[in-house]
Structures are given as structure tokens and as C-alpha cells.
Amino acid sequence: MGASEPSTVTQTQPDASRIAPGVVGRLSNWPWWLILALLIGLILAFQIVTNQQMSSAFSAVSAGLGITIRVTLFAYALAIVIGLFVGLARVSSNKIVLNIASFYVEIVRGVPILVLLMYVAFVAVPFIAELLGIRTRDFPNEVRVIFALAFAYGAFESEVFRAGIQSIEKGQMEAARALGMSYFQAMRYIIVPQAVRRVLPALGNDFIAMLKDSSLVSVLGVEDITQKAKLYAASTFLFFQTYSILAFIYLTMTILLSRGVRWLETRLSAHRR
Amino acid sequence: MTDDIIIIENLEKRFGHVRAVDGVSLRVKRGSVVVIIGPSGSGKSTVLRCINHLETPTGGQIIVDGMRLTHNSKDINAIRAEVGMVFQQFNLFPHLTALENITLAQKIVRQRNPDEARQVALQQLERVGIPEKANNYPGQLSGGQQQRVAIARALAMNPKIMLFDEPTSALDPEMIKEVLDVMQDLAKSGMTMVCVTHEMGFARNAADEIIFMDKGQIVERGDPAMFYTQPKEERTRLFLSQILH
After folding, report:
1. pTM of the model
2. DSSP states of A43-71
3. Which of A172, A180, A194 sits opposite B80 (nearest CB)?
4. Are B211 and B231 in contact (CB under 8 A)?
5. CB A177 to CB B80 under 8 A?
6. Backbone phi, psi, residue B215, to 5°
């Protein structure tokens, strides 16, 4: 399906312009979906400003924005660190290191994030707290879900880094080693910097995915925008208004971010060779 | 201590069941230039790559400047810093400028301070004839210029030996000369060089010894004047007739 879809699209576009040249042809090539989406967005924005119910729903939901952004940023930063080290471990020639890393990645990738979230929050964190002699209560839920999301996404990011590292030509490592660099120096100064550049678009896309998946933390009662929306809708019965606004907020953030990723991508490809 | 800076004894390298190098012995005198030729798959590049341990030999031994190559990685890094290598595909670091390509290893392997490393790098760029390209990225340089930066990068480490692995094979014809000129100057300056190359002009002008390899073994060796005009072995004659047309 994925392979046939784009080809039909590219075929119909020139055909349509040949049959109907001029204004009609050009109009058929417009991104109508985007215009429609922007229109709906504008109407919503207008409603939020003018409509009493919409504006109070908006202020109730957007009160969770800080937590959504904080959870996303911290969990993502942590996931990148985990991902980089696990990714390096996955290309290691040390079999013990390799197996530990593979165990983590394969296990985590096979479990739904929601399940991981509950597992980390209610099983792993209490267990670690007990080991360290700390009270479980001292770990706020927000911290637990950050660990959980980072733990889950660390596995995805490690695959991104592994692919990036393996995509660097063998000659780069050889040239570095031939100059007397150690394996770790070669990784740090030669291989990883190039690999990161190559996978930056993929990392950006995963940041957007992380933003969306941060809505899962509402299950644990962490008051992000999704949880705020749930609470507000349940108390006012304004389901349509509240959830429209919730989707609107997520969409605004993800579309802006994906534009940013696209910009980054073109900037990087312009610099390369 | 002998005058032989590289001593290879009965070197053997197997890849699975294939014997890429099968009992090669070779001595290279300090300051001499050795050119290795042979058909593709003859093991000539593998011999070169064993000298700085990019390939781990499966048999025999190699002594470089009095140091025996072992599996100990500290020793290997120490030897590699003394042995410069130039690759067929240049292998410059594309995310670093020409200057940074040359200064990086000086700083982190030789522990030179940034100013000193920079000065050495500029000197070496001058030596290979492209001081004006210091701040260009490899992608902005021609193949010949890239290879000259690669030579400068190796020389900046003040190696005692330089290895060249088909340094002109990936170059367009009009760029081969600029790289060979640099290599010839280097040979004249007394650098010990081991070159895998089919450039006969270079071999005639600069080499002290030509070694012909086939099927992982040394078939024939000799000084360049005699080697090209009066090869002793039938296999050598056949190979030369193919590359000389």
C-alpha cells in the first residue's frame, strides 16, 4: 500500500493539469487539505477569543501546557543520552556489553509504552526506591513518567544512533585509527559527530512523537493538557469544546515542530558535500 | 638496532579459508622507498594494512622501528602514530575543515597545544602546495586536493614511515600528477615509504625496490630499472604486459 500510493499521486497530478490547463489545473494542485486545516484552526482560534465556553475551556486545558512541555523535554533529553550510549553499546565488539544493550532494546520495543509507563511507575520505581532506602512517595508521579518515557524512547533512539553510526563509511574509522586515535577517540571526534548530523531529522521526528506520547501520562493522573482536558470535560460536559481545543493545541505544536524539522533537514543537506 | 625500520617475517593473513597473504617476508631500510605491485586480490594492500595493524595478522611477525606488533592496543596506537597512512579513498573527515583534519590527531594523540598544531598543519599544507585551502571543507576540494590534504594530515604527525595504499587510483587523470609530485618530493626528503601503486613513472623515479606480488606471495623483487625491462618470472612478464600495454 505504502509503495503504490505515492506513485499514483505523482501520476495523476501532471495528467490533471494536461486535461484542464490554466486556472482549474493550477487550483487542483493547491494543498487544499492545508487550507482546510488552517481554516478550522482559524475558526477555533476565533471561537477561543470570542466564545465564553471555548475560552474557559482553553484556559483550563492550557494550564497543563507547562507540564506537557516539561515532561516532553526532560524525557526526550534523557532518552537521547540513553539512546546514544546504548547505540554505542550495540555496535560494540564486546559481547557482554552488546548483549546487555540488545536485551534492553528488544524487551522495551516489544512492550506498549502505556504498559511500560505503569510498570516503571508502580513496579520499577518503588523497587529502586526500596533499594536506595528512599520512600516511594518522594518520587512524584511527574518524575516517574519522565523516567518511564525516557526508558521507552531510549530504546528507539538507540536504534536511530546505531543506524547512524553504522552508516558512516568504514574508511573513517580506519583513517582515525591509522592516525593513532583510540577507538573511543575515533568514536567521539569522528564517527558520532557525523552520525548525529545524519540522524538529526529522525531525532526531530521522534521529538514530535514524544510530545504526542506525553499524553499517556494522564493515565497516571499527571496534570498535563490531556489530563486537564479530561477533568474539565468531565465536570462541565463540554466534551466537544474541550477535546477540540486539546487536539488543536497538540496539532499547533506538532505542525510547528515538523516545519522546524523540515527546515533543519534542508539546511543540513545544503551543507553536505 | 638494525637499519631495517620494517621487518616482516613470514606474514600470513587468512580471511576464513582464503589466504590473502601467504608467507611474505620483507625488510624495508630506513629512508628507502618500496613499491608493491600486483594484480587485484594479490594481497598487496593487506600487507600494507598489516604494517599498522588495520588488519590483524593470523601468522608471522612484524617489527616496526624495533617495536613488535602485538594485540595490545596501547602498543598498536603507539606504532600507528609513527606510521602515516594514505588511502585510496582519501578518507578525510568531511565534518572538519582541511586545517581541522590535520590538527585533530596532533592535539589528541600527540598532545600538542592548539597553536603548535595549527602551525604544523599550515606548514604541511604549504608543503603539499595548497595553503589557501586551510579553511575549506573536504567536499569543497577536488580529489587531488583532498588526497594532498590527506598526505599533509599524515605528515603532521611526524611519522617515521608513510604507507600509501593506491593513492592515485580514485583520481581523475589530470589530478594524478599533483599527488605523485608530492610523493616524489617526500621520497627525496628521505622519508621511508611503502607504496602500493601501479604508477610506473613514480616507481622508476623514486623507488629503491619493486616488489611484485601474486596470490598472497612475493613473486619477484628488484630495482626499478631492471624490473620493468628484464623481469625474471613469467608471471611478472604477463602482468607487466597487461599494465604497460
Report:
1. 0.85
2. HHHHHHHH-HHHHHHHHHHHTTHHHHHHH
3. A180
4. no
5. yes
6. 50, 40
Nearest to residue A78, comparing CAs of A194, A160, A157?
A157
**A22 Cβ contact list (under 8 Å, min separation 6):** none
Put simply, the chain A residues between 153 and 172 with a CB less than 8 A from any chain B CB are: 169, 171-172
Interchain CB distance below 8 Å, A273 and B89: no
Contact list, A169 vs chain B (CB under 8 Å): 89, 91
Digit-by-digit pLDDT tens for chain B (245 residues) are 468 999 999 999 999 888 999 999 999 999 999 999 998 889 999 999 999 899 999 989 999 988 887 767 677 888 888 999 999 999 999 999 999 999 999 999 999 999 999 999 999 999 999 999 999 999 999 999 999 999 999 999 999 999 999 999 999 988 999 999 999 999 999 999 999 998 888 988 899 999 999 999 999 998 888 888 888 888 888 888 887 76
Interface pTM, i.e. ipTM? 0.92
Say if residues A208 and A261 touch (Cβ distance below 8 Å): yes
Q: Does B89 touch chain A (CB under 8 A)?
A: yes
